[in-house]
Amino acid sequence: MTDDNTPILIGCGQLTQRTAQTNKFEESLDPLQLLTEAATRALNDTGAADKLKPLIDNISVVRFTADSSEAGRLPIGQYTNAPRSLGNRIGAKAKREYYTAAGGNTPQYLVNRTAEEIANGETTVALLAGSEDLATMLGALNKGISLANWGDDPGGEPIQIGENRRGVNDIERAHALYFPVNAYPLFENGIRGHKGRSVRDHQLALGKLFAPFSKVAAANPHAWFPKARSPEEIATPSDNNRYVGFPYTKYMNAIIQVDMAAAVVMTNVKTARELGIPESKWVYLHGCADATDIWHVSERVNYYSSPAIRTMGQKAFAMASKTVADMQFIDLYSCFPSAVEIGCAELGIAEDDPRGLTVTGGLPYFGGAGNNYVMHSIVTMMEKVRGKPGSFGLVTANGWYVTKHALGIYSTTPTKGAWHREDPKTYQKDIDAMAHPEVEAKPEGEGTVETYTVMHDRGGPKMGIIIGRLGNGKRFIAHTPHDAATLNDLMERETLGRRGRVTAGEKTNLFVPQ
């Protein structure tokens, strides 16, 4: 029998604003307006919006990307208490106003956290929402269009939740690893080496991996790029598909300049029943977990696995009394191919699984809605499992650089007994205690390449980044010489395992390959 305090998701809504795609920036909704529209759709989806609004005691907003950059807040679009601003717009006054840390894991983290609050009787009705307006923001700024009317200061300060540590240490920052677009190719070449593939064979495999994502996006009315692409088109560099971070072409990268918003409404079984919300709307969180890998990229055990995803999957599936084979629908976090490959490997999912690996189309094709992409995954997953009662769906989320993770298992099938999840702290300590390489900040001597990338701009290759090992086993980070001959050689020859000499610099280290 299902307990009265069992948490359920009862409403969902999302939208994609396309004014920026036609340069009609003046017609764009601002981030708060997008939030309000998504929240309104989610509340209306329940069929009991007017009854729910007075009961909302938790409004949680996913941090805007413009408010989570390395530089801090941008000079426009300052929302000092987004949860309260949203509450004011929809006519709700929440006792708790939460604003998350940065990271793509946060929407699923929010669902997991809120479910626990509901089960413990701390929350009755929660509204979780997020929006991104970067397409309009950056497009308008580039054209000199004023966005001075963006922003809101309703008073008060929201409660900051989630892991707010910087994503990189000083050594990583000095070598430009704070940009995800620079970090994920390092994982990709690590995966390639682990699989023993040549560069071209691996790129073609990446094209085969992501082509089905683009096909899903092509059929999704909310997708930013609704166009199916062939594996060869995705894998082959061209004028329209230049290299970004070798071996990634443009079509393998998350696109963050989108205008999107999504929201869900959560409550308990007792309240939903009392309000007359049809059970056909109810979606149960059967399993969930949160975990982080060893925090800094330079200290990871290796560059092809994720102990955190592996552990998280084990915990969530055990909680749900299900296996990955029981999932009818899957949405793996897909900012870059390496995130998908690692997720598949750790959760026991084939990269060509006939069920598909996304319900939205993924971040490069559906759109990488900043920290809020997974809220769209959850909304879409709710629609999927509602459309096939009794089915189960898996959603994974990833923040920073394969660093912060969250997972949820969804179904319309009721859970049994009291809802309870294991405290993530109980298993996080084992991940944190894993043996891992020590990093040498000022390396000198002979070294061997463990993984690498070559970063490009529109003019071609511009920077080589190396993670390697010294003779004593310590790890180092370095740049290579920036000349075209060296950078092209890194891409044309097999560079994994190459030897060279590394020297410490005042700000960055230098690795000269043999």
Polypeptide structure, described:
By secondary structure, this protein is of the alpha+beta class. 32% of the residues lie in helices and 21% in strands. The chain is built from 16 helices and 15 strands. The chain has helices at residues 31-46, 49-52, 82-90, 106-119, 134-142, 170-174, 180-195, 199-218, 231-235, 269-274, 307-320, 337-347, 363-367, 373-387, 425-432, 484-492; strands spanning 7-16, 56-61, 96-100, 125-133, 159-161, 259-268, 283-292, 329-331, 392-399, 404-411, 445-457, 460-470, 475-479, 499-503, 510-513. Helix 1 crosses helix 3 (82-90), helix 7 (180-195) crosses helix 12 and helix 11 (307-320) packs across helix 12 (337-347). The longest helix has 20 residues, at 199-218. The mean pLDDT is 96.
The proportion of residues forming helix, as a percent range, comes to 25-40%
Strand segment tally: 15
How would a textbook summarize the main sheet?
Answer: 10 strands, mixed
Number of helices: 16
Task: Name the poorly predicted regions.
Answer: none
**Helix/strand/pairing category:** alpha+beta
Widest sheet: strand order?
5-3-2-4-6-1-7-10-9-8
The general outline is globular
| Fraction of residues in β-strands | 15-25%
Distance linking N and C termini: 67 Å
Q: Average the pLDDT over all residues and give the rounded result.
A: 96
> What is the CA-based Rg, rounded?
23 Å
Topology, pairings included?
Elements: E1 7-16, H1 31-46, H2 49-52, E2 56-61, H3 82-90, E3 96-100, H4 106-119, E4 125-133, H5 134-142, E5 159-161, H6 170-174, H7 180-195, H8 199-218, H9 231-235, E6 259-268, H10 269-274, E7 283-292, H11 307-320, E8 329-331, H12 337-347, H13 363-367, H14 373-387, E9 392-399, E10 404-411, H15 425-432, E11 445-457, E12 460-470, E13 475-479, H16 484-492, E14 499-503, E15 510-513
Parallel strand pairs: 2-3, 2-4, 3-5, 8-9
Antiparallel strand pairs: 1-6, 1-7, 4-6, 7-10, 9-10, 11-12, 11-14, 12-13, 14-15
Helix pairs in contact: 1-3, 7-12, 11-12
